[in-house]
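INPUT
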Amino acid sequence: MSGWVCAAQPSLFMIHKGEGGTQHTVQRIEIHKLQDGDNLILGFSIGGGIDQDSNQNPFSEDKTDKGIYVTRVSKGGPAEVAGLRMGDKIMQVNGWDMTMVTHDQARKKLTKKNEDVVRLLVTRRSLEDVVRQSMMQHPHTN
Amino acid sequence: MEEYDVPSAASILASVKEQEARFERLTRALEEERRNVSLQLDRGSLPSDRLAGGTTGMSNQPLAWQQMVMQEQSPSNQTSLAMMQEPQEVVEETVTIEEDPGTPTSHVSVVTSDDGTTRRTETKDHLTNMKVTKMVKTVTTRTVRQVPLGPDGLPLPEGSSPLGSYTDSIDRRYMKNGDRFITPQANSTLTRSYNNYADSYSDTPDTQFRHYALHEGYGDVTENYGSLSRGVNYRPYRPYMAAGGYRPENSYTLPIRKEDYGHVAQPQVPMGSSTVDLNRSQPERFQPEPYGLEDDRRSLGPDEEEPFDLEPDYSTANRRTLPGRTIREPLRNGPRVRGYEDPIEAELIDERHPYIHGMYPAPLALPERGSLASLDRMGGRRSPSIDSIRKDPRWRDPDLPEVIAMLGHPIDPVKSNAAAYLQHLCYENDKIKKEVRQLKGIPVLAGLLDHPKSEVHRKACGALRNISFGKDHDNKVAIKNCDGIPALVRLMRKTNDMEVRELITGTLWNLSSFEPLKMVIINHGLQTMTNEVIIPHSGWEHEPNEDSKPRDAEWTTVFKNTSGCLRNVSSDGAEARRRLRECEGLVDALLHALQSAVGKKDMDNKSVENCVCIMRNLSYHVHKEVPGAEKFQDPSALQGPGSAGTQRKKKDDAGCFGGKKAKEEWFNQGRKNGEHDKNYDTLDLPKRTEPTKGFELLYQPEVVRLYLSLLTESQNYNTLEAAAGALQNLSAGHWTWSNYIRATVRKEKGLPILVELLRSDSDKVVRAVAIALRNLSIDRRNKDLIGSYAMRDLVSNLPSGQQRPAKNLEEDTVVAILNTIHEIITESSENARSLMTAQAIDKLVAINRTSQSARETKAASHVLQTVWSYKELRNALTKDGWNKTHFQPIATGTPKGSKSCKPGYDDTTLPLMEKNQGSRGCGSGDMIPMDEFGPDGYSTIDQRDSNLKYKSSDGSADLQEREPLKNDTNRKHYIRSNRPAVSLVDACDVKPQPVDSWV
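OUTPUT
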């Protein structure tokens, strides 16, 4: 743990990886949770999961993708500070695979009380894609 | 404290002068008194000369003060007299001192020895030495007066509060005063004691202390106490005698008559400063650090998982800092062992104010306590800054026999202080505990549990709690042998003091970790613990008031301790389980508490863990042990469901529930008839006309949701393991209820939750989940689902040959997984194929050939044989390069290394359910209760828990290496595409979930 000195420093490195014809970048993002009342918060919301209807996911390119996506990022929150963006697909949380988990399992992994720091491995489509898409569709809400 | 130690020279001088003036006045008064007294003594023709003869400077002072008090207060004022109680007792002690036959030498020695106790006074004594001489007689007189209080040598009536007793004695004394003097009898007592001891001890420096002891009622045990340092012995009786004691007296009166005594006290500060080093050592001596701090609670140290409990207040770290704090408030912790608790400390600080303003050093504040707290000094001497005192040969700690003997002292504060000191000594010191046991201290402590005074039974309980903690079971047995367990339970019923209840339940928790005591605790305490703690703290109500909403559970320490105790005793076999199940309200309350935990999403604490573990244990063998279980037995079980498979025909033996038929169809139908499943899932559950209660709640399908919630939300490995274990227990066996449970787990979408936990870092969680999955796969549909979706995770937990996977699971776990795989592929070539495609054959063959564990080898061999038995798979296997020899058992003669196979241990995982009932004995798929599992089984021994805690906190750091992303994704996609027909979650069960969650 102590080796992770840098906080809110996105993009420790980037890997380019082809996937489905669109260019994705893989990023590691480290978010330091923020004490909010009794809770530690990350400041973003997630959607998706294998138990969810992936067709409703506005961010995924492939509508059968049941992965976990970042649906909202709160202004000025830890996630935003760390560089997380709406539409990022979360591949790992602290090393745990997030591509084939239920929504609740993902939430649980992100909200472990005994962990102050969450390290995410996310894939992100090019910024323009995300923006374009999120402007074309209403962000999904419950 | 420091500021008191270094007063300015000017203030010293001023105070000395004031003191002298004061003494002059006193002297006059004393002269007057002396005349009266001598007159009286003459009348009584008692050998008062002797008594009057020797007075030490030290004793004068208290007397002088006392005298002053008396003069300044109206004799008819009882209140003020009560204040003076202590001084008068001092007088008594003074008499003893006087026993030295008037030789200057003896006077000197007396003074010296007193110094040990009352250094501050010493200076004063010197200053006023001449006056002291004058006062001697007066002093004597007083002494004589007091004697009547205790002709039997027990000046303070036992059983009354210190204050009360003092008042009482003073009242009496007052009356005597009215009568103008003592009875001859009293005098003779005094004289006699003098005679007895003066000759033998008079030339030792300790003499006077022995005499004190004698006068104070130690006469019959003089030899025991002779070796006590006076600090210990007389401290309670003559607080003022020491410089410190002196002050307490003042401070005692101070709050009431501040204007009178404030200036009196003042001079003392300078005095103390005039003998600087003495002064300094004193505070140290008074540091109470020893007990208050090391309080019992620590005794549970290892078993308290503070992090989980979120009770930072009680964390070890906090407590360790206490010594520093004690220095601030020396005396006060003594009487109140819990000095470290903030509320009390605050209160103490408040109390200290008067004394601070009253002008003397804080260390001696709280006179009413200090006067009683003989042990405070002992404690003080154990404090870190003791050195200066240690160097003083006149001081020493009381030895253990002395402390234990003091437990029997007639005066309650001495008892409680002795117990508190024992508690301190025993803290994590097995040697001392053993000595206390050998010195027969435990029965005395247990006897004190019934003492009416809360101070006494509290301290005794604290000592027992520390003694009962640890691996030395002899201590626990000793507590049991002196009927300590019923005494603890009695006290629990009697007291409403939460702190005492914490101590009691903590002690019981400690005791409950020793197998032979479990039934004893159940016999004496089960219903009481349930009624007094579990039910009220769980929030459950027998007949809920419809107006009020259900109460939540309170995770109090008492609840935690009690649930921990019940958790331990619940592992004591069938009889213990039966008793707990039938204990009225217990199961109901535990379930309510757990539901409340789930509702509040507060599931990681120790209390929840304890409750789940109790539930798990009580769920063990429900299908055999609960009353009327035979009515629910599934006749098909006898034929072995695993072997019958989908083809088997079952007799329709009309059960109690209409669901019987549905269940049968359930087993018979092919897995593709999803629609039917849905129907039967719903219809299968029995209808009830009245609410279930008691042990029946254990196996109602409703509990499935509870356990699944825990499995989803809890971060506590022990809780996870226990919840999985409960499902494992409930899904074992063949009776109606286990069929419902298995179906309900699927219906509630429990399978993915369980499969997810196969990736847990915790060995035992993986094991419990694996066994649960095996039991669940008795249900044919579950078997298909598990075979499709869990195989990869199961296989990934297997070692590759001799190379263990990152998790390095224990042999037991590997065997459990192998057995689960075996169960899943039995009767299902489809699942066997999944196993192949999960790349398991490599691993299985490797285990079969190279594992150092005979049990692993055997289990792997079973799996391989089963795989080979599917002829339709052989083609594919051969293509992959395998041949028959790979699937045959390895020659048994091969040495398998040192790992021995525990007899009966294989039964825990190897055999498949109860189709092996005849030969295997008890249902193999069941959770094995602690007693059968041995020391490292499911028992809740404290150390184990704390180890786990550390493990769990470390675990997260390693996760990255363990969970390679690629494998996971690939695998999942592969599986999904491979088996599109079956969804891990029954489609009919899917409910809308939040699509968006803030984190």
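end of record. Residues 224 and 402 of chain B are 6 Å apart (CA to CA).
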